[in-house]
Amino acid sequence: MACGFSVGLAKNGLPGMGTPAVVALAMIMPAKESVGFLLPILIVGDVCALAYYRRHAVRSILVKLMPWAAAGIVGGYFLLGMVDDRALKITIGAIVIVLFAVDWFRERYKAEESVPTQWWFAAIIGILAGVTTTLANAAGPLIIIYFAAMRVTKEEFMGTGGWYFFLLNSLKVPFFVHRDMITTDSFLTGMTAIPAVVLGAVVGILVLRRIPQKGFAIFAKAVAVVLAVKLLVWP
Which of 22, 101, 135, 226 suits 129 as a labelling partner, its CA being 20 to 30 A distant? Predict the structure, then answer.
């Protein structure tokens, strides 16, 4: 329920709040199963975001990113077959730490002002996002960097992100089913978190947007990094 609530927050007003759920689940169950278990919950969060922000999507950004992201998903699918549970837990921890380090650099040095906007940058971000979301459901920081470079508004960020991650996560479903990362039992168990996801979405839209978000973002990132370090040290 806590993971579902954080996903609802992340998808509907506070990007980054969902990452602790990614790392926490990897700590309490096998890594591959945790990634597959979370995917349907993420899709529910995406649907909640689309219900409110869908009209604000920037289609040109989606067209640039999606083909490359699809290629990244295929690459991530093959990588999943090459790593065991311990290696994947370490990989999840490393991905979270590296992406948050990149995000910190962006905020600290206003790096989005010098980020390129050409097609090749969209290709790099798209492929990396496809790989990282397949391995760890953790492509959010990469997309934050790209959207910031595109100078989208907050509403455009949520609408475009909603469509992007809905399409991305939906594409992952058959690959995860084939890897037995999503089973009937895991799906039915995960769906019990739907009320928490919806509650998180409502809170994100109606309440948290009206209060300072920086503190919540810092807290979420700090929790995620601490858990990620734990995965690296004691996977």
Answer: 226
